[in-house]
Amino acid sequence: RFNRASLINVGFLESGNDTDYIAMHDVDLLPLNEQLDYGFPEAGPFHVASPELHPLYHYKTYVGGILLLTKQHYEMCNGMSNRFWGWGREDDEFYRRIKGAGLQVRRPSGITTGYETFQHLHDPAWRKRDQKRIAAQKQEQFKVDREGGLNNVRYQIESRTALSVAGAPCTVLNILLDCDTSETPWCTF
What keywords appear on the UniProt entry (predicted)? Predict the structure, then answer.
């Protein structure tokens, strides 16, 4: 099963000391407005895809889509919970982690394109999301995971591929996440 939060934790850990901040960026959300700021989020977590701009999600505690954080701020939150297998809810739990760390989420101002600021490429008829909730996962999705995150993500790197995107060097990692069925029995179907 897919685990977005664990994959973001892995990306954070594998980025090493060469980076000073991370962009948690959904691959199916493309920015259309060149005024969007992807700069260093010095004043705290910066939610580029804020509820006023995101084409689908408009609730005030939403921090998904595109969120920028310094590495220090991500560590203060212990990253994201590894308990969220399948699609959804990990961002909502991460919002509570951000607040628990005493951080304030900032959002863009002066962007006038509203819900036309991004193109959302997801087509549920073509690629269905793994939304199945299994056993105790239904209750777990609303709790704050105070134990897990960066400190206990378990994975193997299957392969690394170096490439260039518009002249910028990139590394694509093929990751195998550890599925501990005693901890999260819903990590398998």
Answer: Glycoprotein, Glycosyltransferase, Golgi apparatus, Manganese, Membrane, Metal-binding, Signal-anchor, Transferase, Transmembrane, Transmembrane helix
pLDDT band at 125 (very low <50, low <70, confident <90, very high): confident
Residue 43: domain span = 4-151
The 10 Å CB-count burial string (b at 16+, else e) for 174-184 is ebebebeeeeb
Number of domains in the chain: 1
Q: What is the pLDDT of residues 136-168, one digit of tens each?
A: 666 766 778 888 999 999 999 999 999 999 999
Residue 156 inside a domain? The answer is no
Cα distance between residue 84 and residue 89, in whole Å: 7
Distance CA 71, CA 80 (A): 13
Please report whether residue 168 resides in a domain.
no
d(CA 37, CA 137): 36
